[in-house]
C-alpha cells in the first residue's frame, strides 16, 4: 500500500491563476491537442492504407505516431479540463497512474527512436541485407521490445516513489504529476531516491541520446561514398529523424538531469515535450518526405471520389 500519510489527493496550481489567461489557454490547448490527434492519426492512416509505404521505416513511423497520441493523452485532456475547473485536483492513485503512463509511453518513444535509427543505418550502410534483417517479424519483435523497455522503465520509476509518505502539503506547482514534484512534497529525506531516479530516467535519456547521435554520425560518414542524389535523399530522411530526436531529448535532459528541484521553467519545458513536439512530428515527417506527401495526396483524391459517388 502507498504510505499516503494525511494526503489522499493533490492540487495542481496549473499554468496561471488569471481566469482570462486560463480561458485563452483552454481554447489554445484544445486546438493543439485536437491537431496532435488528427495529425498523428493521419500518419497512422496513410501508412496502413498506402501500398507505397509498406516498408519497415514507415511501419515504425506509424507506430511512433500512435505512441505520440498516447503520450500526449496522458497529460493534455487533464490540462484542458482543469483550465475550466475552479479546483484542479487529482487523487493519489490517479497521480501515480499518470506518472506511470507518462514514463511508460515516454520510454517507448525513446526505444522506438533508437529502432528507427537502426533501421536507417541498415538501409543506408547495409542495403543488401536490409530486407532480410528488417522483415515484418523482426520489426514486430523490436517494437514489442520497445514496449517492454518502456514498461520496465516506468515500473522502476513508480517503485521508487510508491512508498513515499505525503503528510501535509498536497499542492503541486505543475499541471500534471511527475516524479520530481512528488519528491518535493514527500515528508522524508528523498536525496538517495532522487539519485536513483536520475540514474534510471537520466541515464536512459543520455545513453539513448548518445546512441542516436552516434548512429546518425556513422550514417553521415557512410554517405560520402554515395551518389549526390542518394546522399540528398538519405540526408532528407535522416534530417527529419534527427530533428525529432533533438526536439524530444533536449527537454528531457533539462528536466531529468538536474538536481532534485523544480522551477517555473519546468512547466514551459513540459508543454514543449508533451504538446509541441507531438504536434510538430507529423509536420516534420510529412513536409520533408515526398513519399508521405504523395500518399496523402492519393488518399485525399480517393476520399473525394468516394464522397462524390
Chart the SSEs and their pairings:
Blueprint: E1 9-12, H1 19-49, H2 56-73, H3 76-82, E2 89-91, H4 92-125, H5 130-133, H6 136-161, E3 171-172, H7 179-185, H8 191-222, H9 228-256, H10 265-287, H11 290-308
Question: Keywords, please?
Answer:
mainly alpha; 309 residues; 3-stranded mixed β-sheet; 3 strands; 11 helices; Rhopdopsin 7-helix transmembrane proteins
Mean pLDDT: 85
* Secondary-structure element pattern, one letter each: EHHHEHHHEHHHHH
> What's the architecture in CATH terms?
Up-down Bundle
Task: Please give the domain count.
Answer: 1
Strand content: under 5%
Distance between the termini: 60 Å
| Order of neighbouring strands in the sheet with most strands | 2-1-3
Amino acid at each position: 500500500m502507498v504510505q499516503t500519510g494525511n494526503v489522499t489527493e493533490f492540487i495542481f496550481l496549473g499554468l496561471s491563476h488569471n481566469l482570462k489567461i486560463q480561458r485563452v489557454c483552454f481554447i489554445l490547448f484544445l486546438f493543439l491537442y485536437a491537431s496532435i490527434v488528427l495529425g498523428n492519426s493521419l500518419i497512422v492512416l496513410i501508412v496502413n492504407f498506402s501500398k507505397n509505404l509498406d516498408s519497415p521505416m514507415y511501419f515504425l513511423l506509424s507506430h511512433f505516431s500512435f505512441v505520440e497520441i498516447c503520450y500526449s493523452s496522458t497529460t493534455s485532456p487533464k490540462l484542458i479540463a482543469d483550465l475550466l475547473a475552479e479546483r484542479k485536483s487529482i487523487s493519489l492513485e490517479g497521480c501515480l497512474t499518470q506518472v506511470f503512463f507518462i514514463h511508460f509511453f515516454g520510454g517507448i518513444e525513446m526505444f522506438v527512436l533508437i529502432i528507427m535509427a537502426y533501421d536507417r543505418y541498415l538501409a543506408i550502410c547495409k542495403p543488401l541485407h536490409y530486407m532480410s534483417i528488417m522483415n515484418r517479424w523482426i520489426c514486430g519483435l523490436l517494437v514489442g521490445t520497445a514496449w517492454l523497455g518502456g514498461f520496465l522503465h516506468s515500473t522502476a520509476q513508480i517503485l521508487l516513489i510508491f512508498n513515499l509518505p505525503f503528510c501535509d502539503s498536497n499542492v503541486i506547482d505543475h499541471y500534471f504529476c511527475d516524479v520530481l514534484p512528488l519528491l518535493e512534497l514527500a515528508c522524508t529525506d528523498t536525496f538517495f531516491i532522487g539519485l536513483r531516479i536520475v540514474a534510471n530516467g537520466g541515464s536512459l535519456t543520455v545513453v539513448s541520446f548518445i546512441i542516436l547521435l552516434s548512429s546518425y554520425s556513422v550514417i553521415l560518414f557512410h554517405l560520402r561514398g554515395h551518389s549526390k542524389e542518394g546522399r540528398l535523399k538519405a540526408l532528407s530522411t535522416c534530417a527529419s529523424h534527427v530533428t525529432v530526436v533533438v526536439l524530444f531529448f533536449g527537454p528531457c535532459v533539462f528536466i531529468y538531469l538536474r538536481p532534485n528541484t523544480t522551477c517555473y521553467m519546468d512547466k514551459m519545458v513540459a508543454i514543449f515535450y508533451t504538446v509541441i513536439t507531438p504536434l510538430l512530428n507529423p509536420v516534420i515527417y510529412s513536409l520533408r518526405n515526398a513519399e508521405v506527401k504523395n500518399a496523402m495526396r492519393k488518399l485525399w483524391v480517393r476520399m473525394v471520389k468516394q464522397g462524390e459517388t
